[in-house]
Design a protein that fits this description.
The chain has 150 residues and is mostly helical. It has one domain. The protein is built from eight helices and no strands. The mean pLDDT is 92. It is found in: Membrane.
């Protein structure tokens, strides 16, 4: 692979780190006081209640709604863990797959909102690209520790 300025592995590391910064920003911009008091889950409950797919309404009502505080912490700290994991390159394949799953959940929940769809589709595309390019090969704790080598 011929690239300009950096190697292909370094460009994919930059992509991975950029995605990690995006997840970190998703965590940072949340109003934590409101979010952990149930604001985020209340907002999502309103969207789920009007969702066009009954399976989303039912799933939300059974899994998320009975545990609003726990789910608020799970979502917020999943975003933080993804950001830190991708930036540092620690357990990178796990973080990339977890990010794909979280983006898929967001995509399904926000199926009607094109602005959210664009962000989640872009993040999912970057996750898949970084995963299949094995973006942990360079500038990562995984590489330093000899994890996930070819």
């Amino acid at each position: 692979m011929h690239t300009i300025w950096l190697t292909g592995a370094e460009w994919f590391a930059i992509l991975r780190i950029g995605l990690g910064l995006w997840w970190l920003e998703s965590w940072r911009h949340k109003d934590k006081k409101s979010w952990f008091a149930g604001g985020g889950i209340t907002w999502a409950a309103g969207i789920a209640a009007k969702h066009r797919w009954p399976v989303v309404r039912t799933g939300f009502d059974r899994i998320v709604k009975p545990r609003p505080r726990l789910m608020a912490y799970v979502v917020a700290y999943a975003e933080l863990a993804l950001g830190l994991g991708l930036i540092s390159g620690l357990l990178t394949p796990v973080a990339l797959v977890a990010g794909l799953v979280l983006n898929a959940v967001y995509l399904v929940l926000m199926i009607h909102d094109w602005a959210e769809q664009g962000q989640n589709l872009m993040m999912a595309l970057i996750s898949a690209t970084a995963l299949f390019a094995m973006s942990w090969q360079c500038w990562s704790l995984d590489a330093a520790l000899g994890l996930f080598l070819r």
